[in-house]
Specification:
Elements lengths: L1 H22 L20 E4 L4 E3 L8 E6 L4 H16 L5 E6 L4 H11 L5 E3 L4 H5 L7 E5 L5 E6 L4 H11 L1
Length: about 170
């Protein structure tokens, strides 16, 4: 009886331990996305200021496209990082924020209080988020000057990684 229980336990535990060991080397923030290496899905979205932003018109300039919300703690965590980077790379990299499932007035109030690192683009039907395969904020896409998605990061972007990506796209 003990041997049978031990055998059943081993049959359950060994595959689980193998899966755990394989997963330890995986960083969930860097997700393989079918968009990486492909042209970024185009869009035309209006900012809170009423200005229309067309991704195609930004060709030749690297773009950091961040999906964010005011109710998202990691989004609030990375906000100062994006503020600093947007100032440092002004004129060389375009930072765009797409509002993800949030109230426009909350975004407006947040931006007035904490500042904005780029235009807050309204995606009313979530079509752009769907085109980019966004599961939830924050998700950041690095798009090179040729319009190709270079990388997708899920969760707050680390400062060293943001700097490396920006320098690599310039």
């Amino acid at each position: 009886m003990n041997r049978k229980a031990l055998l059943v336990g081993a049959l359950v535990a060994v595959p689980l331990l193998a899966m755990l060991a394989l997963g330890l080397g995986f960083d969930p923030r860097f997700v393989e996305s079918p968009l990486v290496g492909a042209p970024a899905p185009s869009f035309r979205l209006m900012s809170l200021d009423g200005e229309v932003w067309d991704l195609e018109e930004l060709r030749g300039t690297p773009v950091v496209l961040n999906f964010w919300s005011t109710w998202c703690p990691p989004c609030l965590e990375e906000h100062p990082l994006f503020m600093t980077a947007a100032q440092r790379y002004a004129g060389r990299v375009q930072f765009l924020g797409v509002v993800y499932q949030d109230d426009v007035e909350k975004i407006r109030t947040f931006s007035e209080r904490w500042g904005a690192w780029g235009p807050a683009l309204v995606d009313p039907d979530g079509e752009v988020a769907i085109a980019y395969g966004v599961f939830g904020p924050p998700e950041t896409f690095f798009i090179d000057g040729g319009g190709q998605v270079v990388e997708k990061v899920i969760g707050a972007v680390r400062p060293d990684h943001l700097l490396a990506m920006l320098e690599g796209m310039l």
